């Protein structure tokens, strides 16, 4: 993000000519709003007054990441900075986990009636809704820094996923037209996510719920609506009532880390027969033993291992990161049951450039592996493909990208 900001600053400020280029793009932006966005907004039922108010004083936000303004050079390769896709050890900092759980327990007491009602209505445990709320906005305490219309307008006009953000901009205008948001409350993240549950505008239109009975779904000011909306999202994405999200386990060396993934499920009883055991020493609940489970090793052999249920992948629908879903499940358990740290330890792993991981992925694809796309992110398909390559090469299977692996794969 720093590199991108420097590039944009250089593009716009290094000379009078470049400043003129920026001014020209601002004029093009206003024309785009009038000629492209206003007709779509009007067709979606947005009034001219709402449209004008939304963009009053709005200009292109040149500090946002993932922009592609005309004439800007490509950014240099960079390390992964988005927390959900970086080093697992850093993502699970003790202070972050303990802080989220401590405030979550306070919120569980404060909102006990709402949480119970929401769980009855949706089947989603209150502890899970609380953990997502904590992760997304610090239980409403985190500052939400950006004007949503500036973010979505900028990304729709000159972002790398312009069509997606243009659609989200129209959804945000529909929210404003319907009067869901308090005046001037349409604040968002750098990606355009709104309110305490950090819903994209299209998700708000589909899943926002009224938790306090006032006939509105106010995810900006109402904590009850925030809780109900998170649970509504998970329920609509297939949360299975009565099942947990997963269990930390020990995985014997005789069980390959390449068995990870939601497409290699077995009943939990079958995993148990292969030697996997809960780290707590407790047996798996009988109803869980009959259900399907999946091996999860988000750091390969360099960290804790889990058997997760289909509900884990519902959590991933909220944020497509194994670490995010694991954090939410773990913090939820700490809120409700007072559990401590994982028994397994995250061992330090190399923080590689995304370009390095992408090169490994392309090399694995050339060898016939399905890595899920060469995106530079070590998801489960990439992890297990690394493990399969390691096993075929006679190496110990770690199922995680490591320094020096790129050279070995590409030579």
Radius of gyration: 23 Å
From the spread of the alpha carbons, the general shape counts as: globular
Q: Flag low-confidence runs.
A: 1-15, 76-84
Q: Enumerate the strands of the largest sheet in spatial order, edge to edge or round the barrel.
A: 4-6-7-3-5
Mean pLDDT: 91
Assign the structural class, choosing from mainly alpha, mainly beta, alpha/beta, alpha+beta, or little secondary structure. Answer: mainly alpha
Q: How much of the sequence is in beta strands?
A: 5-15%
Query: What's the helix count?
Result: 18
Give helix % range.
40-55%
Terminal CA distance: 32 Å
- The ordered H/E elements are HHHHHHHEHHEHHEEHEHEEHHHHH
DSSP strand tally: 7
Major sheet size, sense and barrel closure: 5 strands, antiparallel
Secondary structure topology:
Blueprint: H1 2-13, H2 16-43, H3 48-54, H4 88-91, H5 94-110, H6 112-122, H7 126-137, E1 146-147, H8 148-158, H9 162-178, E2 187-188, H10 201-207, H11 223-236, E3 246-250, E4 266-267, H12 268-273, E5 277-278, H13 286-289, E6 292-296, E7 305-308, H14 310-318, H15 322-337, H16 354-366, H17 380-392, H18 405-410
Antiparallel strand pairs: 1-2, 3-5, 3-7, 4-6, 6-7
Helix pairs in contact: 1-2, 5-7, 5-15, 6-11, 7-11, 7-15, 8-9, 9-10, 10-11, 14-15
